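User: Working on a comparison across species. This one is Response regulator receiver domain-containing protein from Citreimonas salinaria. Can you predict its structure so I can line it up against the others?
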Amino acid sequence: MKQRTFDFQRERSGEPFGTGRFAMEIDSTMPASARAPGLRQSPSPLAETNIALGGLVSSVAVAFPLFIGLLILGVGAGPSLLMASGVQIVIFCSVLAMGLMSDSPEVEYSQPVSATDDREPEAGDIWWMYPSRRDTGQQLRAAMAAPDSLHSRRLAADTAALGYEVHHCGNPEAVIASMRARPCKWDLLVFDLACAADVESAVDHLVELRTLCPGTRVVLISGSAGQDEFNGERRAICDVTLAKPVRQGRLLDAVAFCTTAA
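Assistant: Here's the predicted structure for Response regulator receiver domain-containing protein from Citreimonas salinaria:
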């Protein structure tokens, strides 16, 4: 399934909800089943060759008639050739640049690999990737299961500001499957109960993940929580529970608490 993952740009209909784009290059020969969220399939050399060829043909198609026209008008051969060559170079570079820019959004991302489930992913399993915005000296990776909303995007951006590479999906089942497949690759899970169709099932999954990924810190977002809970009473489910909407700066406090309590 084709997916586009942008930094502050969503895939649906290509409508941006911010600015900027980020993609990590990988070998284009790697099979799709071996790619994780956030890894990019490089454009094929054939596509780049076709763009360059199109630019060359277009530039020659304009430059040659221009050269002949200038000669007919009485302009010398030297100046005519110089002007036609300049126009050809400008047209070639313009076509090449527009072709590469229009090809750039067609970045394909694989669905998270599941070691236990080989079924085709659902069309709604879209991932958004936010690159780390802080150098922590180590590669930190966070998964976020939350609805596609302004609140979730702000949380993802705040998490990226803490030094995490954030992979956000609105389907909690897809997030859980990805973490099961690579339990050692995740340092943080931010889980919004609002995206879970069955809260009891979601809690069971979180309990399972606590056993499977003991080193992964879990921040639970709950709309029914009356206040933030840092006392560890829900240790079997999560490290911290934050009441929704999450106040500015509370995610930083939650991650700091998880790090200290670990």
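For your comparison, note: The longest strand covers residues 140-145.

User: Helpful, thanks.
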